[in-house]
Amino acid sequence: MAPPPRTHAFPKEAVPPTVYAFAKELVRTTPERWERGFGAITLPDQRWARADIKTTGLLPNVLAQQAAVEAEVEDAIFIREGMVQEGTHNNVFAVLGGEVTTAPATNHILHGVTRAFTLELCAGLGISARERAFTVDELRDADEIFFTGTTTEVRPTVELDGRPVGSGRPGEITRALSEAYRRAVAPEGSAA
Predict the structure, then answer these.
(1) How does residue 46 score in pLDDT terms, banded at 50, 70 and 90?
(2) pLDDT grade, residue 13 (50/70/90)?
(3) DSSP collapsed to 3 states, the chain
């Protein structure tokens, strides 16, 4: 079947789907590296308004992640109209006044299975958590910041925009959630 003309409309004939998949070994962060924590920068969110749809149109994510690399940190956090959204390839959480906080599951973030699982872990550990909009100023004053993702797992951020987060070390809540996550996904005695 010849490709349809470029008209920006769905073709009248059925188009066979393209399926692409790959697998690679997960290389976990070493305990020593995790203990040092990671850095992040904040950047304006240049993405389209449907970040909740997982697509291959990730140019703004790539450019933001490159900005993080150039700033010699691991992550960039998208800010839209003064509000925290998510990282370039993971979800972000802040501990604000003892409460784990993450942006609400709107069209401005990819909802993330690890994000949802982290909220479940909070409930199981008796850690107060909620989804709510919060500002970049709140983020800068956070006691702890961490990212979650399938390959990120639960990763502490100890520096934001060149300034220490909290004590400048991974916090107690981040540590408890990381340990609970590891126990759940790689129980003792498993091959992971």
Answers:
(1) very high
(2) confident
(3) CCCCCCCCCCCCCCCCCCCCCCCCCCCCCCHHHHHHCEEEEEEECCCCCCCCCCCCCCHHHHHHHHHHHHCCCCEEEEEECCEEEEECCCEEEEEECCEEEECCCCCCCCCCHHHHHHHHHHHHHCCCEEECCCEHHHHHCCCEEEEEECCCEEEEEEEECCEECCCCCCCHHHHHHHHHHHHHHCCCCCCC
Band (99; pLDDT cuts 50, 70, 90): very high
- % residues pLDDT > 90 (the chain): 81
Length of the chain: 192
- Structure tokens that stand for 118 in this block: 């982290």
The answer to whether 54 is a known catalytic residue is yes
Pairing outcome for strands 99-102 and 153-160: unpaired
Residue type, 40: A
| Beta-carbon contacts of residue 135 (< 8 Å; ≥ 6 apart) | 82, 83, 84
Phi-psi map region of 2: left, alpha, beta (phi>0 left; psi -120 to 50 alpha):
beta
- Taking 60 as the threshold, does the pLDDT of residue 71 lie above it? yes
Of these residues, 6, 8, 12, 54, which one is catalytic?
54
